[in-house]
Amino acid sequence: MLMPKKTKWRKDHKRRRGGKASRNLNISFGSYGLKSLSSCWITSRQIESARRVMTRHVKKGGQLWIRIFPDKPVTVHGGEMPMGKGKGAVDHYVAIVKPGMIMFEMEGLDLETAKKVMELAAYKLPVKCQFVSK
């Protein structure tokens, strides 16, 4: 699972979820990309699941880049915990994805194969996605 090696603070605020992406807007490394159409938190497990599907179908034919990284900690309280006992422990990490962000990039495949692989990865993600090419 992806997670930061070291963070300045252990726990983070929730933040607001609005707005459009201002970075990761263009395909920088590969020829094809998977672009988000809505905003969402994507967990490290979901990123790993999408990566596994993509690498399984690409095999040695192409190269893959993951443009998002889960660096935001999410805390969770135990079950049946009363209110007023402080913030819970860090449970997992998420990547904040906004509309227009390129999440994955790929190169070294033909258009039909790349489109199929990106659609399989999009099924694993909780955000609406679109296949884009350079």
Low-confidence blocks of residues: none
Largest sheet: 4 strands, antiparallel
Helix tally equals 2
CATH superfamily of the domain at 32-74 and 89-133: Ribosomal protein L16/L10
Range of strand content: 25-35%
Report how far apart the termini are: 29 Å
Helix percentage: 10-25%
Q: Largest sheet, order of strands side by side?
A: 3-6-1-7
Radius of gyration: 17 Å
CATH architecture type of the domain at 32-74 and 89-133:
Alpha-Beta Complex
Secondary structure: number of strands:
7
Please identify the structural class as seen in this structure. Answer: alpha+beta
CATH first level of the domain at 32-74 and 89-133: Alpha Beta
The CATH topology of the domain at 32-74 and 89-133 turns out to be Aldehyde Oxidoreductase, domain 3
Shape: elongated
Mean pLDDT: 93
Please trace the helix and strand order, writing H or E for each element: EEHEEEEHE
What does this structure look like?
Helix 1 (44-58) runs antiparallel to helix 2 (111-123). A 4-stranded antiparallel sheet has the order 3-6-1-7, covered by helices on one side. A 3-stranded antiparallel sheet has the order 2-5-4. It has a domain at 32-74 and 89-133: Aldehyde Oxidoreductase, domain 3 (Alpha-Beta Complex), CATH 3.90.1170.10. The mean pLDDT is 93. It has helices spanning 44-58, 111-123, and strands at residues 32-36, 40-43, 63-66, 72-76, 89-97, 102-107, 129-133. The protein is α+β, with helices and mostly antiparallel strands and 134 residues long.
